[in-house]
Amino acid sequence: MTELTNLGVKDIRDGVASGEFTAREVAEAFNAAVAEAASLNAFIVTTPDHALASADAVDAKRAKGEDLGTMGGVPIGMKDLFATKGVQTTAASHILEGFNPQYESTVSQNLWDAGAGMLGKLNLDQFAMGSSNETSYFGNVSSPWRKAGSNAAMSPGGSSGGSSSAVAARIAPAATGTDTGGSIRQPAAFTGICGIKPTYGRCSRWGVVAFASSLDQAGPMARTVEDCAIMLEAMAGFDPKDATSLKMDVPAWEAGLSADLKGKRIGIPREYRMEGTDEDILKSWEQGKEWLRDAGAEIVDVSLQHTKYALPAYYIVAPAEASSNLARYDGVRYGLRDLPDGAGLQDMYAATRAEGFGDEVKRRILIGTYVLSAGFYDAYYNQAQKVRTLVSRDFAEAFGQCDAILAPTTPTASFPLGSLNDDPLTMYLNDVFAVPASLAGLPAMSVPATVNSDGLPLGLQIVGKPFDEQGVLNAGLAIQQRAGFDAKPEKWW
Amino acid sequence: MSTYRIQGATGEWEVVIGLEVHAQVTSKAKLFSGASTAFGAEPNTQVSLVDAAMPGMLPVPNAECIRQAVRTGMAIEAQINKYSRFDRKNYFYADLPQGYQISQLYHPIVGEGQLLIEADEKAGIPQDKVIGIERIHVEQDAGKLMHDQHPTMSYVDLNRSGVALMEIVSKPDMRSPAEAGAYVRKLRSILRYVGSCDGNMEEGSMRADVNVSVRKPGEEFGTRTETKNVNSVRFVMQVIEYEANRQVDVLENGGSVDQETRLFDPNTGTTRTMRSKEDAHDYRYFPDPDLLPLELEDAFLEECRASLPELPDAKRQRYESELGLTPYNARELTAEVETFGRFETLLAATAAKIGKPEAKVATQVANWALSIAPGVMKSLGDEADPANATAEAQASILAMQDKGEISGGQAKEIYEIVLKTGRDPEEVAETEGLKQVSDTGAIEAAIDEIIANNGDKVAEYRSGKDKLFGFFVGQTMKAMQGKANPAVVNQILKDKLG
């Protein structure tokens, strides 16, 4: 029999539907793999019973000949930023430790409605702030990958590092991620898997712990483009409970997949050729162009001239929104409360937030508070918003000449955990290629391309026009077919 | 020009007043959540996940609240901004679950408008005055802290958290407590006409932040203080009176007024410092990224406009020009929704009963509605059952009076009985003998007898002593036990006395 944990979303769904195996067998296999992989620290809590219950429901439906749903029988990992009813939801923070929501996020509910089950809540950077998964209150997540000839623990990327680690380690066939400035794409690239951030508004933000509201978007992380298409279709959809939700039907992305790019033009942004980018990355970018040309696309040069201002603008806008979004964690109604003897309200706030937030979260709250302060607002926040408009305009102009853009996902491959702890700016630079598409709200995907000389995966990024997830997925599929990426981390956990 | 002045040791001071009125929008649900807004519920029973700011919860604007703000803007002839936006006002407090209030700083939904306060000589407003309105914006209310539930802890009630408020910001156009009082009353009246706020100040549906400064007439504006959350017209006027005098004292003693936030103590009628400028919050306003800008469509605006009722100023003018009412009566009748509502119902019923156009009976109805009927009601006290004060019964009384069947005094007597018993006025007039006699035969007979018995007076009258006419009228009415129709009596007396 096939090793069930090697299967992805499509194969599991189809295998359960055809009776090759039961959903319960799949859930049990993944539950066991999750239990074995504690050393990755990918999960904050595991929910084997949830996975089994969903599986049994799907098996029962099959016995009655009912529709199993587009994710029927597929157990997934849920990033612990999504509120799950009755299951601890922490955003990897101490301040929300022990918080059990009375509600289910729209995205997770959509997945359960499509027949998926939950293996557990995945670790992440605290409040999704981080690019290495080292800011979680519940400890670092390790990538299943290691540099050739080294035992050093590597970063799975962040903030969706639990998701990327679990999917790459094959302890989950797929996982949800969220992407504010690269938090799906960068970890996907670091771990040799696929991840797509859809157009802003495709996936409801209702029930997702907010980091930066104007940027946050949920998306799937899986090992193939097809799996991403299937899962995104299940996650997306208009939600009247989110005022920024797109009032559009969800296209049939899975059915629309085609690797034939004849007549398509792919833009190569010249400003993405930056100093500090690894040679291996630049090489894989060249290779990516060849693959897309081979798929029938025409390669054209485009300019995104405000690219270099995107990262600084992002690190103003995102912390500004975060500083306000995180004000609700005050110890008054839920989560951690630190009330020193004889303390008043202000003392309680200070003690609770000092105790409950990690350093990176505090850093961003401070930055955000600063850039919104009287006297600095125009110089920082307003200026950053103008940059954001210019970055969006760059893309709009580029899309006059091309249908999608090809770029590296990250400037480097994964790095050892701890190696960038004292260098937040280099850490922030990891998202330099990912952030512009976030600022512009565009669909963007990372697809594994190859491994570098250390044997670590490298990803290629495709950025599409607004609402054109299909075009992004199709270009991703063309790369996937030609890259033939089949490297796997060797099991050490 | 207001002549209100503070007499200081160094001369006269003028008071400059601006008001920020917070009016709770009349709507079943809160501004960004589906929770109920009903007053007086048990603490924390009207709180949605959004109102409690649970992680991942998002605001969705309630269209009815937006509609009410737009209609209010139209009622004060204001610029309606088709593009507006919500901003976050960030500060920490236990009654503010999100850690920010969603408000509109940069792009309010309603721009400049105006409101007319009418001349009221007695109140010290010599002539009509237009008060400018700077803007109206929509924002969330906060919850409420309860300090009396526990010896060492404060409790939080989030029922009000997220309720929609309109903040109506005036220009610094008022110059006396009387003008400010008239402004609040007029604003309240307009809000209640429009139905966008119930204007109930005791329940906190309307409260004002009062900005006061003083200056020597003709000089630049002085430094202002803001006194928060004043919840009655009388208190608004007291705050101004107190603040203006306090500021004059400070200035005349060589001090300077601090720009600060103050609190009013209704028990002492004084204000005290709540927060100085140094302690002022930096609210770090920025556009709320959870909400898209509000863009209003023409069809929506047209619907808002079409749904507006006749407003106080227009109604008052119509009462004067079409119904021929005195300015005083017109103003009194149009001041409140209930008053004009009762008046118009009674007017229609009376005109129908009598069979004359409304304009012909309006003055009679106005006098009845404004002074006679309330007077009777008041004199009866608890004996009156207000439920008996139906338009039908009152119209019936007014119709009898119009036809000369009853006198003004009889009308009151009949109404007394009606209020006490609910009996039919015509039946009361009949069975209680409360009708005038217009039967010329009976009156003539009475007059003939009086003329016969008073030959000397008749002679004096005929020789030119016109004043005696009153004597004959009095004698006739006495003979008729006061029930003769005076017009008929006059006519017959004139004929007979020559």
- Report the principal-axis shape of chain A: globular
**DSSP strand content of chain B:** 15-25%
Q: What is the domain total for the residues of chain B?
A: 3
The residue fraction in helices of chain B comes out at 25-40%
Average pLDDT level of chain A: 97
- CATH C-level category of the domain at 4-258 in chain A: Alpha Beta
Blueprint (SSEs and pairs):
The complex is a heterodimer of chains A (493) and B (498).
Chain A: H1 9-18, H2 23-36, E1 43-46, H3 48-63, E2 75-79, H4 106-113, E3 117-122, H5 161-168, E4 174-179, H6 185-191, E5 194-197, E6 217-222, H7 225-235, E7 265-269, H8 279-294, E8 298-302, H9 307-325, H10 345-356, H11 359-371, H12 378-398, E9 404-408, H13 424-429, H14 435-439, E10 444-451, E11 457-464, H15 469-483
Parallel strand pairs in A: 2-3, 7-8, 7-9
Antiparallel strand pairs in A: 1-3, 4-6, 5-6, 5-10, 9-11, 10-11
Helix pairs in contact in A: 2-3, 5-6, 7-15, 9-11, 9-12
Chain B: E1 6-8, E2 11-24, H1 63-75, E3 83-84, E4 87-90, E5 100-103, E6 113-117, E7 129-140, E8 144-146, E9 155-157, E10 164-170, H2 177-194, E11 206-215, E12 225-230, H3 233-252, E13 261-265, E14 270-275, E15 286-287, E16 294-295, H4 298-306, H5 312-321, H6 327-334, H7 337-354, H8 358-380, H9 391-402, H10 408-421, H11 425-431, H12 440-453, H13 455-462, H14 468-479, H15 486-497
Parallel strand pairs in B: 12-13
Antiparallel strand pairs in B: 1-2, 2-10, 2-11, 3-16, 4-5, 4-15, 6-7, 7-10, 8-9, 11-12, 13-14
Helix pairs in contact in B: 1-4, 2-3, 5-6, 7-8, 7-9, 8-10, 9-10, 12-14, 12-15, 14-15
Characterization of the model:
- The complex is a heterodimer of chains A (493) and B (498).
- In chain A, the strands form two sheets. An eight-stranded mixed beta sheet of chain A has the order 4-6-5-10-11-9-7-8, with helices on both faces. A three-stranded mixed beta sheet of chain A has the order 1-3-2, with helices on both faces.
- Chain A is an alpha/beta fold.
- The longest helix of chain A is centred in the last third of the chain and has 21 residues, at 378-398.
- In chain A, 37% of the residues lie in helices and 13% in strands.
- Chain B folds into three domains: 6-300, no CATH class; 312-431, no CATH class; 440-497, Arc Repressor Mutant, subunit A.
- Chain B has 15 helices and 16 strands.
- Chain B starts with 5 loop residues before the first strand and ends with a helix.
- The chains are: A alpha/beta (493), B alpha+beta (498).
- The A-B interface holds A 82-83, 89, 91, 96, 99, 101-103, 105, 205-210, 212-214, 240-244, 320-321, 323-324, 326-328, 330, 332-334, 345-346, 349, 369, 372-374, 377, 381 and B 49, 52-61, 88, 90, 92-94, 97-100, 154, 156, 282, 284-286, 289-292.
